[in-house]
Amino acid sequence: MSLTYSTPGIVLKSTAMGEADRLLSILSPERGLIRAVAPGTRKPKSKLGGRTSLFVVSQLFLVRGRSLDKILQADLQTSYPGLSRSLAKLTVGQYWAELVLRQALSEQPQPELYRQMLYLLGELETTEAVLSLLLLGIMTLLTLAGLNPQVAHCCLTQQPIDAHHLNSAAGAFFSPAAGGVVLGKALEHFHSPPRPTRVSEGPKSDYTSKGDPRLRKQQPDLIRLSLPHWLILKSLGEGDIQQLTSPHGDPLFSPQNLLKVEQILRSFIQHYFDRPIQSAVLIDHLFSVSASSLP
Prior knowledge:
Layout: E1 4-17, E2 21-28, E3 32-38, E4 57-63, E5 69-78, H1 81-84, H2 87-103, H3 111-126, H4 130-144, H5 163-167, E6 172-175, E7 180-183, H6 184-187, H7 213-216, E8 223-224, H8 227-237, H9 241-245, H10 255-273, H11 280-292
């Protein structure tokens, strides 16, 4: 068995290693996730440096190692310079990369995940609707992993949800642990319903929990949904791109509402993977500032 191999790959993470090397996390269509050393890439005159930068796509030639592979050569295929010129776009790319790294497997072909990441980076390069594309990318990657939240039906009763439920006194809630939206009236049948919470600056629930408080601590949190937030989640689940990205679209799809939905989806992601999204801190700062500046 040969110790050398070749594969195309997207660099999704890069960290300093030793005095001049970098440790890369690379997504490839044929071999899934690859962790490899890029020797000497932190030196000013390194030939590998630009070809192994973040979100650069190259044809890589590697040699297998005991724990880490080593890059011998990289031939540039595609780069996305527009990402490095926009902090918002770069942060969105890093957010997606974190999602991909949580679901990618080593030594497993993952061509669809690879193609989708290429597509999303290409769209991110040229789009002006950065926040909308962030949400579409999140839902795309969750769907590929089989983790897309249930939005059209109540997770507890499977009853179809409509605008009437959102505007009713009982309301509807997003439950990360339940896997999507639950109707407020369905919670009345449970002895110890989940307790309300807030997601970052997300909407505060006014649901009053009952039951043994010791049990409530073990139950999933709830986020009360407004009608705009539910409509955005529904559009994401249906792949309604035009509705979200149109500059003259429905005012319900405002930057403020889009940012709230990102926070709701983030709670779902972090509950499932039991790890925080590191780039979300910068997402909060960048997009909350731009949203608050709007009339």
